[in-house]
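Hi support team,

I've been running sequence recovery on a batch of backbones for a student project. Most finish fine, but this one hangs at about 90% for roughly twenty minutes before it completes. I'm not sure whether the input is malformed or the queue is just slow. I've pasted the structure tokens below so you can try to reproduce it. Let me know if you need the job ID as well.

Thanks,
M.K.
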């Protein structure tokens, strides 16, 4: 009788093990069993600037057209984080079981902000300049993955991306506008480095990857002009924090 129970338990646990192995291999549509796979992503983007000011950044802005100062001395310039979103398409190639190359072409809709504080409000009030952008991004990234534990993997990523602005922001003619009505602009094209981490969660029919990335522009994104908002600035570097949900 005891031998029968032992045999029954052995067969039961053996069947569970075989079933578990079969489910793990089949889940997520077998994405990891293919060298190439595709997916899509939804992203939340938080953008801010690293600001480098000119040595005389506090100096009031003098308008050559009216021969008058149009602002008082600046007391501070800062850049709060602002939110946006992005939609993208994933294509990946598996080099080994723990390393893959991927690209995630993405369309990004995001605002960037700079706050200007003046010592007095007599000539101009404190101002928040919003730079509204729509851009296409083309990253190339390496993804280093841990071994799969059940239906879970952790990973880190690193790489670079090229951003191309959509619209005519850099070509707007503001010559007829008053100095305080002009806008702060960014260059159309720039490159950034990217680093982040995430995890692969293997669900029954697809693989879900929550991910957090940081990106910083290699060079300044400031479009140089003579106006009350661009003149105090030496350089602007774009800093993004991106939370992604990737479906593969």
């Amino acid at each position: 009788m005891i031998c029968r129970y032992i045999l029954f338990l052995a067969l039961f646990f053996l069947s569970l093990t075989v079933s578990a192995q079969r489910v793990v291999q089949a889940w997520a549509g077998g994405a990891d069993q293919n060298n190439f796979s595709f997916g899509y992503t939804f992203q939340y983007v938080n953008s801010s600037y690293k600001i480098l000011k000119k040595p005389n950044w506090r100096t009031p802005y003098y308008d050559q057209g009216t021969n008058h100062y149009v602002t008082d001395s600046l007391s501070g310039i800062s850049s709060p984080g602002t939110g946006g979103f992005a939609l993208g398409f994933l294509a990946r190639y598996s080099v080994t079981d723990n390393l893959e190359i991927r690209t995630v072409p993405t369309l990004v809709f995001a605002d960037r902000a700079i706050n200007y504080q003046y010592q007095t409000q007599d000539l101009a009030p404190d101002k928040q300049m919003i730079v509204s952008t729509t851009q296409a991004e083309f990253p190339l990234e390496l993804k280093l993955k841990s071994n799969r534990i059940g239906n879970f993997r952790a990973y880190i990523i690193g790489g670079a991306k090229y951003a191309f602005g959509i619209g005519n922001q850099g070509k707007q003619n503001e010559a007829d506008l008053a100095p305080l009505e002009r806008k702060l602009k960014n260059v159309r094209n720039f490159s950034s480095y990217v680093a982040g981490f995430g995890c692969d969660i293997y669900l029954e029919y697809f693989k879900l990857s929550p991910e957090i990335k940081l990106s910083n522009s290699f060079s300044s994104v400031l479009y140089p002009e003579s106006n009350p908002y661009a003149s105090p600035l030496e350089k602007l570097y774009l800093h993004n924090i991106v939370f992604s949900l990737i479906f593969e």
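--
Follow-up from support: It reproduced on our side and the slowdown came from queue contention, not your input. Residues 111 and 137 are 15 Å apart (CA to CA). No action needed from you.
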